[in-house]
Write a structure and sequence with these properties.
Layout lengths: L1 H67 L2 H24 L4 H16 L2 E4 L12 E7 L8 E6 L1 E4 L2 E4 L1 E6 L1
Parallel strand pairs: 2-6
Antiparallel strand pairs: 1-4, 3-6, 4-5
Length: about 170
């Protein structure tokens, strides 16, 4: 009878032990799954943030590309504008320039301004600025050394980017 009681007690404690060990195993498995979930969530959040940054970078790159996509044609038009100016100055010397020629030149310049083109302003007598100007000659002058004496060719910027420096003569 004592054996029966012992067996009965063992049977009664086994389900509790089994249940607590199963609960403990389930809790461990749940903790493992929570950790795995947190890792996936963290990875997803990082990937999402990287994708958002990528989209922002691509928008900036596209805007820059669109801003300067017409640079080569504008460079060609600047050369045409220079030739136009040369023709106008020749006609002015001969007294043959008509008012319409000035209007056409102004229209061309306004059209280029609409696409972001602006002139580099050169002031005679100011210091030479190597960031915006190119010295094509150094000449004797009564002005202080390193000052701009004459503008040979106009310089231009496209949307804030220098695409052609002003070519100038500088005093010795």
């Amino acid at each position: 009878m004592a054996d029966e009681l012992n067996n009965q007690k063992e049977e009664e404690t086994k389900p509790e032990e089994n249940l607590s060990s199963r609960v403990s195993a389930d809790e461990n498995e749940l903790a493992k799954y929570k950790k795995e979930r947190d890792e996936y969530l963290d990875g997803w959040q990082r990937a999402k943030a990287e994708f958002i940054n990528y989209k922002k970078d691509e928008v900036k790159r596209f805007e820059t590309l669109a801003k300067f996509a017409n640079e080569s044609i504008i460079r060609d038009l600047i050369n045409i504008l220079d030739s136009f100016d040369l023709a106008v100055s020749t006609l002015e010397k001969e007294g043959k320039v008509e008012k319409g020629v000035y209007l056409i030149r102004a229209q061309l310049e306004d059209a280029l301004k609409n696409y972001g083109l602006e002139r580099v302003i050169v002031s005679i007598g100011n210091s030479f600025d190597p960031a915006m100007q190119e010295a094509v000659a150094v000449v004797e002058s009564d002005k202080p050394s390193g000052t701009v004496v004459e503008e040979i060719e106009r310089g231009y910027m496209l949307n804030g980017k220098l695409i052609r420096p002003a070519r100038v003569k500088v005093s010795k």
